[in-house]
Each structure stands twice: as structure tokens, then as C-alpha cells.
């Protein structure tokens, strides 16, 4: 029981911290690469205007998660550059306190979640279906745009950490259910994935130590 409780706590903690870390890392790495690969002064144009679908996906993700969690979506600006911001979604949390916290955390990290789902969906498509070259180019362009904008701004991070404790409890309860039912298909699949990740990290560490 203690191991199940501990694994559930660790799993919830890792997921809650991974989402903002992924958003920060993606922005840092992508911004660095674009600055290296583009002429001086072209960064803003390339990162933002040439990837408008990603900007729109980012804002729609915020709006969708706010709407699904029953927050009131007041305004959506898919692409309206001003004061360093490319778009904007204004929503008002409503309902019980726990629900309002969930609305803040989920809506703020939405672009990271939908971005990862988009990447997985893209990988599934290209692995299981054959497309013509133009379709591959279009899909590749769209997924690059989405990945470039699966980020979290400073304002997003502030909102996320306001409601993170409810997010943590939600993941903890889900993890507890999975680990307490080790024979279920979901638990077996989840455990296999964790073991695969751990084994990969061990292989990387062993390679570096050689």
C-alpha cells in the first residue's frame, strides 16, 4: 500500500511539473534555434507571422479548455499582435472553488497538452497512412507551427500554479486507481511505458559512463 501511495504521489508530482517545464523548454529551444537559423531582425517575423496556425491553435486551446471546464470565455483574439502578445483569450473562472482552480490550471497549460496530442496524432497518421508529398508538406508545416507554440507565457504560469494543487489531487487519485488495480489493461500499459522510459534513461546513463 505504501509503495502504491508513493508511486501515485510521485506520478502526480512529475506530471504537474512536467507540463510547465515542457512549455518553458519548447519556447527556449525553439527560440534559440530560430535565432541561430534566421537573419538578424527576422526572428519575430519567422517565429510568429510565418507560424500563424500555431498561434491560433495556442489561443483556441486556451479557449477550449476554459469552455470545457465551464469557465466563462469572454473574448478570443486568435491573432492580434500588441505589447509583445500575439493573441489573447480572456475567461472568467466560475463555479465552486475547486472547479475554479481546475479551470485556471487546465486552461493555462492547454497549449502544451493539445500540442503533445497533435504530435502523437501526426505520428500515428504518418505511420499508418500513406499521403502524397503535398499533404506531407502541409501536415509537417502545421505540426511545426503547433510545436513552436505549445508554450506557456509568464501569465499562463501564474494561473497554472494558482490551481496546481487541485490538478495534483486529480492526477494523484487517477494514479492511485491505476496502481491499485495492477491487472487492469490501463495499468499494465501504463506500467510498461514507465518501465520503457526508465530503461531508456538507464541506457543513456550507461552510454555516457563508458
List its salient traits:
210 residues, 8 helices, 2 strands, single chain, 5% strand, mainly alpha
Description:
This protein has 210 residues and is mainly alpha-helical. The chain has one domain. The chain is built from eight helices and two strands; from the N terminus they run αααββααααα. The mean pLDDT is 81.
Tally of DSSP helical segments:
8
The number of domains is 1
Strand order of the largest sheet: 1-2
Return the average pLDDT rounded to an integer. 81
The largest sheet is:
2 strands, antiparallel
> What portion of residues belong to β-strands?
5-15%
Question: Termini separation (Å)?
Answer: 38 Å
Which structural class matches the secondary elements?
mainly alpha
| Number of DSSP-assigned strands | 2
Provide the helix percentage: over 70%
Radius of gyration from the CA trace? 19 Å
Low-confidence stretches: none
Gross morphology:
globular
Can I get a quick summary?
This protein is 75% helix and 5% strand. The chain is mostly helical and 210 residues long.
Summarize the SSE layout with pairings.
Blueprint: H1 2-37, H2 43-48, H3 52-68, E1 72-77, E2 88-92, H4 97-128, H5 133-148, H6 154-162, H7 164-180, H8 185-209
Antiparallel strand pairs: 1-2
Helix pairs in contact: 1-4, 1-7, 3-4, 3-5, 4-5, 4-6, 4-7
Amino acid at each position: 500500500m505504501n509503495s502504491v501511495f508513493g508511486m501515485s504521489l510521485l506520478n502526480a508530482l512529475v506530471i504537474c511539473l512536467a507540463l510547465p517545464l515542457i512549455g518553458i523548454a519548447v519556447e527556449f529551444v525553439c527560440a534559440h534555434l530560430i535565432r541561430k537559423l534566421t537573419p538578424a531582425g527576422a526572428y519575430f517575423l519567422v517565429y510568429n507571422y510565418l507560424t500563424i496556425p500555431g498561434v491560433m491553435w495556442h489561443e483556441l486551446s486556451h479557449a477550449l479548455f476554459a469552455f470545457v471546464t465551464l469557465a466563462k470565455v469572454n473574448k478570443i483574439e486568435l491573432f492580434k499582435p500588441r505589447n509583445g502578445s500575439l493573441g489573447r483569450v480572456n475567461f472568467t473562472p466560475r463555479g465552486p472553488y475547486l472547479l475554479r482552480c481546475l479551470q485556471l490550471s487546465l486552461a493555462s497549460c492547454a497549449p502544451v497538452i493539445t500540442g503533445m496530442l497533435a504530435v502523437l496524432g501526426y505520428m500515428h497518421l504518418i505511420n499508418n497512412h500513406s499521403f502524397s508529398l503535398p499533404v506531407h508538406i502541409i501536415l509537417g508545416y502545421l505540426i511545426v507551427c503547433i510545436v513552436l507554440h505549445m508554450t506557456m507565457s509568464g501569465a499562463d504560469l501564474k494561473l497554472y500554479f494558482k490551481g496546481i494543487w487541485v490538478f495534483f489531487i486529480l492526477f494523484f487519485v487517477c494514479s492511485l486507481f491505476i496502481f491499485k488495480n495492477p491487472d487492469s489493461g490501463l495499468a499494465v500499459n501504463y506500467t510498461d511505458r514507465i518501465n520503457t522510459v526508465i530503461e531508456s534513461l538507464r541506457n543513456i546513463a550507461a552510454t555516457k559512463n563508458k
